[in-house]
Amino acid sequence: xxxxxxxxxxxxxxxxxxxxxxxxxxxxxxxxxxxxxxxxxxxxxxxxxxxxxxxxxxxxxxxxxxxxxxxxxxxxxxxxxxxxxxxxxxxxxxxxxxxxxxxxxxxxxxxxxxxxxxxxxxxxxxxxxxxxx
Length: 133
Known about the structure:
Blueprint: H1 3-19, H2 45-52, H3 64-77, H4 93-107, H5 114-132
């Protein structure tokens, strides 16, 4: 994790600015008529990270860059990144679900707005840059 993670987080914020923001799923295919590319649809926080890392929105777990970015957001949000006392293991479906539910749940709160999501992505990017120093 480093400046590369920060770059993914910055791009994730730009993805939301460009495509729009979504709640309740990784992306909304019904709001981008004429496009069958899910990477051009409105996305949630994790979906934006996946797109920023070159994946389809539901594939945030597929690259080390997107996993590192999701962990950085988790740190920024104060999410327990060591459920049961052990660091999150991306080979463990329960750990993946834990992180997805925690970050996704934060994204999906009724009082959440796109600006909140963009702000946390940018704050996590700044924190990653500071960690790299």
